[in-house]
Amino acid sequence: MEGLSARTVPEHFANREAAAELLARSLAAYDGKHPLVLAIPRGALPMGRIIANALHGDLDVVLVRKIGAPDNPEYAIGAVDEDGRIWTDPIVSRLGIDGQYIRDEAARQLKVIKARRVQYTPIHPAIDPQGRIVIVVDDGVATGATLGAALRLLRQQRPARLIAAFAVAPPDTIARLRPLADDLVYLSAPEPFRAVGEFFTDFREVKDDEVLQILRETPPPV
Description:
Strand order of the largest sheet: 2-1-6-7-8
Oligomer: single chain
CATH architecture of the largest domain: 3-Layer(aba) Sandwich
Order of helices and strands: HEHEEEEHHEHEHEH
CATH topology of the largest domain: Rossmann fold
Distance between the termini: 33 Å
Structural class: alpha/beta
Radius of gyration: 16 Å
Strand content: 15-25%
Helix content: 25-40%
Low-confidence stretches: 1-8
């Protein structure tokens, strides 16, 4: 669902924080239901904190990594989740991308996931999503490979309800994501769509130090 009318949503967002505040308004129905907000590192962590605080929920991360195209690493042709499962876009077969490339790149990204889990766990042990209202947050979605992998992983962990929340995505990606979640909450679905960053005035890189600080400041429930 689109939580706010088109007239209340800017064509460009000042930054991730401004988008998160709008998403929190769109997600207000979950306030008081103790949702678990799972942000995709690193960019979505500042957004996840704002949303979790607004909804009086818990904050954690869901660890997935995109698999980039051989000639364009920023273009996701698939993703790998924390359990090592690989999800690929149908475009892989059309482009004739070698399966060995997919496996090698997935293995490389899985090492990043494992390293992050080692970093995060001592300061913020993972929260079990089973039986919880789970809101997966991303700043924006291009192909949907990474968010789709996160939703598939979490569905297997049996949340009570699974929601995907993001600022911006193209309409065809939104259509692909719909079957993977109980609800989609987004702010804008523009066409044409080239890259997520073009819809933010400030789309700075979120550094590891900022992620770790956010996790330290939002301890898991006792």
